[in-house]
UniProtKB/TrEMBL annotation:
Keywords: Cell membrane, Disulfide bond, G-protein coupled receptor, Glycoprotein, Membrane, Receptor, Transducer, Transmembrane, Transmembrane helix. It comes from Acipenser oxyrinchus oxyrinchus. SUPFAM superfamilies: Family A G protein-coupled receptor-like. GO terms for cellular component: plasma membrane; synapse. Belongs to the G-protein coupled receptor 1 family. This is 5-hydroxytryptamine receptor 1D. One of its GO terms (biological process) is positive regulation of MAPK cascade. Pfam families: 7tm_1.
């Protein structure tokens, strides 16, 4: 009788243990599902905020340039074109990428996949190449100011922008040809096929590595040119008087010779037209030093901006392109966690948010235009 009782107790304990184990397993499963759902919602919110901020910041840049006549220059048109490109990234690429990144499943079909991939490659490449043409424009402006000021026209800026888009389209088109062969298949994911190693090398070098080398060279030369201007003698930091000379008179007045034909003693050579300006004391040394100080401050600010631009660009895009190239070269021998690859992808997209911030936050004219725009005043 005792044996039967003990056996019944053991069976009861086993049932209870199994039931508890099942309940605990169900509880863990439910907790995991809730945790995953919470992470997905959080990721939706974070990526959505980044996308919305990218849209708004680039729209503000475009509206500011459009409404402010003072900003209607070829250099600012290039910045405006960059803002349009980054806006396209935030509208055509980032929203779909949010759904794909969070769900890990492509549910939009083959045609939408082709459109999304083409838009992604084209717009992101165009954004990167815009940085190159902006750097090229600034390089010509600082190293060949007199000659380039004649060539720096809106038409020239338009040609540079057109070249950027042509190159970007040429880089994004090839995948469309081999993806058509899989159009009838069920599509579970939407990625560029890295098995085509020659295309991967062609696209990564055309979209990132070559532009990066060009940016480093250009910004390096711009930095050297800016530094040389900072430490150049004051007289070469921008002459206020090009066809006139200021000559200090013995009585404290100034002698201004319209032609540069007077000697240091105030004696006029033939052709000189002296004009005495009484009660006016021009402190030439102080004026030159002040211009030197302003010039040096501007050059330091410009070089600092260039460093931030280049650093942000490399920080955002280098991990993505390195991983893309490595995966293509080593194939199955290399493996990267999908979450890490998604992180690098969105780090690249983040550059479209950083661009308008950098290119406008360090520009006083843009700051003033932003303030007027916020106050709903048209800028002239």
């Amino acid at each position: 009788m005792m044996a039967q009782t003990n056996q019944s107790a053991d069976i009861y304990l086993q049932i209870l243990s199994a039931s508890s184990s099942q309940n605990f397993s169900d509880m863990i499963s439910t907790w995991d599902e809730n945790c995953i759902l919470g992470l997905q919602i959080s990721l939706y919110i974070i990526l959505g905020i980044i996308t919305l901020a990218t849209v708004l910041s680039n729209i503000f840049v475009i509206i500011t340039i459009f409404l402010t006549r003072k900003l209607h220059t070829p250099a600012n048109f290039l910045i405006g074109s960059l803002a349009v490109t980054d806006l396209l990234v935030s509208i055509l690429v980032m929203p779909i990428s949010i759904a794909y990144t969070v769900s890990k499943t492509w549910s939009f079909g083959q045609i939408m996949c082709d459109i999304w991939l083409s838009s992604d490659i084209t717009c992101c490449t165009a954004s990167i190449l815009h940085l190159c043409v902006i750097a090229l424009d600034r390089y010509w402006a600082i190293t060949d100011a007199l000659e380039y000021s004649k060539k720096r026209t809106t038409r020239r800026a338009g040609v540079m922008i057109a070249v950027v888009w042509v190159i970007s389209i040429c880089i994004s088109m090839p995948p469309l040809f081999w993806r058509q062969a899989k159009a009838h298949e069920e599509l579970a994911d939407c990625n560029v096929n890295t098995d085509h190693i020659f295309y991967t090398i062609y696209s990564t070098f055309g979209a990132f590595y070559i532009p990066t080398v060009l940016l480093i060279i250009l910004y390096g030369r711009i930095y050297v040119a800016a530094r040389s201007r900072i430490f150049r003698p004051p007289s070469s930091c921008g002459k206020r008087f090009t066809t006139a000379q200021l000559i200090g008179g013995s009585d404290g007045s100034s002698l201004c010779s319209i032609n540069s034909n007077s000697n240091q003693d105030g004696q006029l050579q033939p052709g000189g037209s002296p004009i005495f300006i009484n009660h006016v004391k021009v402190k030439l040394a102080d004026s030159v030093l002040e211009r030197k100080r302003i010039c040096a401050a501007r050059e330091r600010k410009a070089t600092k901006t260039l460093g931030i631009i280049l650093g942000a660009f490399i920080f955002c895009w280098l991990p993505f392109f390195v991983v893309t190239l490595v995966i293509s070269i080593c194939q199955e021998a290399c493996w990267f966690h999908p979450v890490l690859f998604d992180f690098f992808t969105w780090l690249g997209y983040l550059n479209s948010l950083i661009n308008p911030v950098i290119y406008t936050a360090f520009n006083d004219e843009f700051k003033q235009a932003f303030q007027k725009l916020i106050r709903f005043k048209r800028c002239y």
